[in-house]
Design a protein that fits this description.
The chain has 480 residues and is α+β, with helices and mostly antiparallel strands. The chain has 3 domains: 3-151, Methyltransferase, Cobalt-precorrin-4 Transmethylase, Domain 2, CATH 3.30.950; 214-388, 2-Layer Sandwich (Heat Shock Protein 90); 404-479, Winged helix-like DNA-binding domain superfamily/Winged helix DNA-binding domain (Arc Repressor Mutant, subunit A), CATH 1.10.10.10. The chain has 14 helices and 24 strands. Strands 12-11-15-16-19-18-17 form a 7-stranded mixed β-sheet, with helices on one face. The longest helix has 18 residues, at 62-79. It is globular, with a radius of gyration of 27 Å. The relative contact order is 0.08.
Length: 480
């Protein structure tokens, strides 16, 4: 039997068609590049269990077909980034009174390009053209990047069917934050939780009860001092689970380890938590909602130090300018990176549609002095919320600087080392650097010192509104 006998609409003479008798375990790149090439071009259909050139059906029994599909899925997940939005189905046929199956993989044009094939840590970009898959040219890569729709990860359609029984934890989370009310099916539909065919969107899949993949990974650590570089790690825990369990895990981790104190006010004793519960919760929700879920191999970082808590989320502010450090949390306008995830959290009443979470954090620290004010710093690949420990009297120890070694800067000055040390842990404005050095904010500082360090790659410059910030490039220095 041949493929055209069981699939009427198949177009054999097409550059969007390819088939394999089975997946070659010894040459994974040989067929993975076809999937990547289809996704980077205008899509295509890939058949497994069909002889190449003749289109003769080879097929599998039911168990072998299932194993072949699982192997295909695992290899795609491990080596293609971002994962193409494919539809995988079994096509059944009978021969000699025995049932057989082939696997049909429909690969649409990727909304986010280029799809990169990474094998043995070597990334490659492939393009399908004229019935063949070859390496993409420089011009094609540029064109892919320009034409990419940059669709948010969470609103792309997954290959997982919606099953209401697999969202019990989301329903419990909803009841907990909505005075015991039930999460209605209509509410999920209005959010676009799944498409017309019943397939979950990527963001919805992150709420599955049994979700354990790396997209939601979080790492929580406790240090006994003021920084990561020179202090002993007390504990370090990793967690993988769905979004609601991740939120609970982070909250429990910090609540179990934070400090507590007591102050006396007019003959009344007042308990003080290191981190106000409301501020902590808003910080965690913000990190979850605005995380860049395209970035594989990353995780939300929750680091507890002697003087502060840092919550870092992969990805800079969505479509926003990277900046150094700012205490003006209310002035930050962060556009939504994950529309569906945000809608679910808003629907669960743990996030406001107006995006006022940073305002709530500021309110919780309203009575704190200047050295206990929360702040945010951001770069192109992450943003970090810093919550000072209200039980630590000295506030955040911003004045601690590391001792660095580095190759002398061409045409450098005797102040280079102090500047690089001061800006290593935190980005600083020119006025702050001048104050630290004990010199005036002059043209000499801006051009001969900071400008020269920037030109030679030792400092990275960013802007927030009109303020210019400088931060040390860690790749150019080493800590002693």
């Amino acid at each position: 039997m041949y493929l055209e006998e069981i699939i009427e609409d198949v177009i054999l003479e097409s550059d969007k068609f390819e088939c394999k008798s089975m997946l070659n375990r010894e040459d994974v790149i040989g067929w993975l590049k076809t999937i990547a090439g289809f996704a980077n071009a205008s899509g295509g259909e890939f058949y497994i269990g069909v002889e190449d050139k003749t289109n003769k059906l080879i097929g599998f029994d039911r168990n072998a077909a299932d194993n072949e599909r699982n192997y295909f899925n695992n290899q795609v997940n491990d080596h293609l980034t971002p994962r193409p939005q494919m539809k995988i189905s079994f096509v059944r046929y009978d021969i000699r009174n025995s049932e057989r199956f082939i696997i049909r993989v429909t690969v649409p044009e990727s909304l986010v390009k280029p799809v990169i094939l990474k094998y043995k840590n070597i990334p490659s970009i492939f393009m399908r053209r004229d019935g063949f898959t070859n390496g993409a040219t420089y011009e094609e890569i540029i064109e892919m990047s320009i034409k990419s729709k940059n669709t948010q990860y969470d609103v792309l359609v997954s290959d997982v069917k919606y099953n209401p029984e697999k969202f019990s934890m989301l329903r419990d989370f909803y009841r907990e934050h909505n005075e015991g009310r039930e999460l209605k099916e209509k509410a999920l539909q209005s959010m676009g939780f799944y498409d017309e065919e019943g397939y979950l969107l990527n963001g919805a899949a992150l709420f599955l009860d049994d979700y354990k993949d790396k997209k939601t990974e979080v790492q929580c650590s406790v240090f006994n001092g003021f920084n990561k570089g020179s202090e002993r790690i007390v504990t370090i825990n990793r967690f993988n689970g769905n979004i609601t369990s991740t939120i609970s895990y982070i909250m429990d981790f910090v609540n179990q380890r934070m400090n507590h104190s007591m102050v006396k006010l007019n003959d009344v004793r007042k308990n003080i938590d290191a981190y106000p519960k409301r501020a902590l919760f808003e910080g965690v929700i913000n990190a979850i909602a605005h995380r860049d879920y395209y970035l594989d191999g990353t995780q939300i970082q929750v680091d507890m130090f002697k003087d502060r808590l840092e919550i870092s989320s992969p990805g800079g502010f969505y479509r926003g300018e990277k900046f150094g450090k700012t205490y003006d949390l209310s002035g930050i306008i962060s556009k939504r990176r994950n529309e569906l995830i945000t809608n679910v959290l808003v629907g669960c009443n743990v996030m406001e549609a107006a995006g006022t979470g940073f305002d709530k954090i500021t309110e919780e620290y309203e009575t704190a002095d200047e050295i206990h004010k929360p702040y945010i710093y951001s770069s192109s690949d992450h943003f970090t919320l810093v919550l000072p420990d209200l039980t630590y009297v000295n506030g955040v120890e911003d004045n601690s600087v590391p001792i660095l070694t580095f190759v002398p800067v061409p045409e450098g000055t005797e102040l280079d080392e102090k500047v690089l040390s001061f800006c290593y842990y935190q980005a600083h404005k020119v006025s702050e650097i001048a104050k630290y050095l004990g010199i005036s904010d002059s043209t000499y500082l801006r051009k001969q010192i900071l400008g020269n360090l920037e030109v030679n790659g030792y400092l990275e410059k960013s802007k927030l509104s009109r303020a210019v910030y400088y931060k040390t490039n860690p790749d150019m220095v080493s800590k002693c």
